[in-house]
Structures are given as structure tokens and as C-alpha cells.
């Protein structure tokens, strides 16, 4: 068992498959770092393997909002005491060890080129990386969730951790997806 695992992602919004990956990482580690990418809207840039990930529509929730959603979900699953949530700017690899120590094992679920490129970049930076191949047919897409959220389709509620449903509803009531660039 390693002392520290890490899962990186945008978590726009966090969903059930994110929690599943956190649990997998914690089977092999004492503690988990949840590293939230795209924390700073000014630092986003196009990525060849994922053309949408820098756009406002793909990033409707702030780092602060995502950290709150993740914290609620992790606490409800009993994982809160074993986790730390940090910002993790993928555009600045030199700063990565300031947020996630190099001895952390990175867990990446790969569905396509973007995730494989991210795993390779993490390995080049000095992290041990475990790549879990994802089944594209069973993938829960945060892009699809954002479409449901923007359209007012209540089906999104079944795909997110139960502890985040009320928080997401409050966030959307205060600042709807259309105002967030996501609708």
C-alpha cells in the first residue's frame, strides 16, 4: 500500500464515476489527493487531444464551487478524513509538486487520447502512474451532465453523488448555466 494516491480532473461537475475512481485509489493508499484541474480560468488553453476542455461551456463551475461539491461528496462517502482537495494547473507542470508530492501515485481512467496524454505528462514529471482503461460505452460524461443541467433536465440528479444534488441545485438557482457559459 502506498502512502498517497492522487486523482486529477476538472470535476465539472463531480459525478458517480469520479467517486468510484477515488475509492479505487484509496484501496491502494492511505490518503488521497483530489487535484482539481483548470482552477484558474485565465490559465486555460486549447489542448490538441481535447478541444473543448478550455472553453467556458466546459468549465461552468469555479474552483471554489467544485471543491465544495467534492468535499460534500467525499464526506458523505466517509472518505473526507482521508482526502485533501487541491488546485492543480495542468498548464504549469513545474508547480505540480507544490500541490501533489512526487511520491503520490497518480490514478488516471483513460477513455481516449486526452487521458493518455495526461498520464504520460504526469509520468514525465516524475509521478508513478496507474492507468485504468475505461469502457467508452459505460462512460458517464460530464459534458452530457452539463447539457442536462443547462436544459433543466432533472436526469442529472441521478448521475451526481447524492450529497451534491442540493448544492448543485442551489448553485444553479443563484447562477444558472446560461450565465456560467454552460448553456
Automatic annotation (TrEMBL):
Nucleotidyltransferase in keyword set: yes
Keyword Iron: no
Pfam families, alphabetized: CTP_transf_like
Domain of life: Bacteria
A GO molecular function held by the record: nucleotidyltransferase activity
Domain Cytidyltransferase-like: 8-52
Keywords: Nucleotidyltransferase, Transferase
Database matches in PANTHER family: BIFUNCTIONAL NMN ADENYLYLTRANSFERASE_NUDIX HYDROLASE, PHOSPHOPANTETHEINE ADENYLYLTRANSFERASE
Annotated protein name in UniProt: Cytidyltransferase
Amino acid at each position: 500500500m502506498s502512502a498517497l494516491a492522487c486523482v486529477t480532473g476538472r470535476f465539472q461537475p463531480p459525478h458517480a464515476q469520479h467517486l468510484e475512481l477515488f475509492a479505487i485509489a484509496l484501496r491502494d493508499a492511505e490518503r488521497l489527493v483530489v487535484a482539481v484541474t483548470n482552477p484558474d480560468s485565465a490559465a486555460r488553453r486549447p489542448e490538441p487531444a481535447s478541444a473543448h476542455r478550455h472553453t467556458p461551456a466546459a468549465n461552468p463551475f469555479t474552483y471554489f464551487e467544485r471543491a465544495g461539491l467534492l468535499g460534500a461528496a467525499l464526506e458523505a462517502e466517509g472518505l473526507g478524513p482521508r482526502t485533501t482537495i487541491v488546485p492543480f494547473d495542468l498548464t504549469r507542470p513545474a508547480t505540480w509538486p507544490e500541490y501533489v508530492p512526487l511520491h503520490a501515485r497518480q490514478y488516471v481512467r483513460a477513455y481516449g487520447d486526452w487521458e493518455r496524454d495526461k498520464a504520460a505528462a504526469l509520468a514525465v514529471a516524475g509521478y508513478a502512474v496507474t492507468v485504468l482503461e475505461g469502457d467508452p460505452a459505460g462512460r458517464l460524461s460530464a459534458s452530457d451532465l452539463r447539457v442536462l443541467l443547462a436544459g433543466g433536465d432533472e436526469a442529472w440528479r441521478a448521475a451526481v453523488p447524492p450529497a451534491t444534488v442540493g448544492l448543485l441545485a442551489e448553485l444553479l438557482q443563484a447562477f444558472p448555466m446560461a450565465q456560467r457559459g454552460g448553456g
